[in-house]
Specification:
Elements lengths: L17 H14 L3 H19 L7 H12 L6 H8 L13
Helix pairs in contact: 1-2
């Protein structure tokens, strides 16, 4: 008698319009992935995003007060961001020097 083996993979079947399959195949090819791998990764990533959006974060009243206090502080400039927004855009006239 055959032993019961726990199944580790479960098939999912979908019916898709040809245009959708063509787009998925093109994207999978650009990533160097098979259609199955590409669709599986995209579906799992989307599922993780939805689950994280609905995840409840619990904290003590004191922890929440600290959190709100930190968010209420004035923003401190980040030197790299200040420098970045000071640059000319590549499509602007000039040699790309600072404004």
């Amino acid at each position: 008698m055959a032993a019961n083996v726990e199944r580790k993979e479960y098939p999912i079947s979908m019916r898709l319009p040809e245009a959708d399959v063509a787009m998925i195949d093109r994207a999978a090819s650009l990533r160097g992935r098979s259609r199955t791998d590409f669709v599986r990764d995209a579906a799992v990533r989307a599922a993780e995003d939805v689950i994280m959006e609905h995840r409840l974060v619990r904290m003590s009243p004191e922890g929440f007060a600290d959190f709100v206090e930190i968010l209420s502080r004035p923003a401190a400039p980040v030197a790299e961001m200040v420098e970045l927004v000071s640059r000319r855009a590549p499509w602007e006239a000039g040699d790309g020097a600072k404004r």
